[in-house]
Amino acid sequence: MKLTLRRLAGQLQLEFRGEPDQEISGVASLISAVSGDLCFIRHKKYLSELSGCQCSVLIVPLDFDQETIDKSLIFAENPHFQFVQAMAIIEPELIGKDDYQQHDSAQISSASRIGKNVSIGALAVIEDDVDIGEGTSIGAGCIIEKGANIGRQCKLHSRVTIGHRVVVGDRCVLHPGVVLGSDGFGQVWHQQHWVKVPQIGSVIIGDDVEIGANTTVDRGALDDTVIEQGCKLDNLIQIGHNARIGAHTAIAACVGIGGSAKIGRHCKISGGVMVRGHLSIVDHVTLTGMSMVIKDIKLPGVYSSGTPLLENRQWHKNNARYKSLDRLARTVALLEKQQDKSQ
Fold first, then answer.
1. DSSP-based three-state secondary structure for 229
2. Which of 45, 82, 282, 307, CA to CA, is 20 to 30 A from 332?
3. Residue 131 CA to its chain's centroid (Å)
4. Taking the domain 107-303, which CATH number applies?
5. Which residues are catalytic?
6. Which residues contact 83 (CB under 8 A, 6 or more apart)?
7. What is the CATH number of domain 3-95?
8. What is the pLDDT of residue 256?
9. pLDDT at 319
10. CB atoms < 10 A from the CB of 243, how many?
């Protein structure tokens, strides 16, 4: 969709500098942009990235030095967010709107309740007593088990599985391979063997949650596993039974969260983090990549653990020294005591 600088800035309700009738025909990254494209820059410290950029219009921070670059500018408090808004205006066909068709090969129970303008893809299965809200899209090969409830304007990509009695809020996005409501890992040891514990809880997903490809959320053993509103989960995350993830928390790929862990609101969990079960993390905590959380976090802040990457020879030297830490600590403590006595 082509539109002028004046029209785009007007729709975004933002101030601009440049030729009002300049045409914008697409969106792109700073590296791949050509004439007619719109780009954005988060902060003036990234100014060097503009070298060689061929875009016609930039969305920039409010404090951007207008004299440093000869391009048309749109000024925004949050350039990245406004760029996302502009994408929906300039490239609506790339964002993917459904045509609300129900494929002939889909198996839809007559005992299910399907809202208006619901799209259901090929080979999808909708079992008894399922509720699907208005404007929701169910992708090819999805399975929605008995008694599940899916809200309005959700997007389920292909091969999503929603277990029995799972509840998904409004405007949620579930990417391919997501599984909500598989059995939690519950076993009890009895007479020299493991006995499975029935998992009779469910999974509750709040509004505006996005869950990445092949992420699994286990159902609770007795109570429910809960992901509160606005959470954003990346690919390949495992969330154990009875865990609770607070509102607007973001979790990167390959994170494991143990059963019954409680994660606060507005937390940021980086890739590869492991959180032990049955612990609590307060609101506004950031965990850096590959951290291992083994006890409660009671104060907001940024937390890290693990050993950063080293050249292999240096890593082996350091690893050998770890074995001496206890002996060194005892030696230091003994020397301190001897020094105290001599004073």
1. coil
2. 307
3. 25
4. 2.160.10.10
5. 241
6. 27, 38, 39, 40, 59
7. 3.40.1390.10
8. 98
9. 87
10. 25
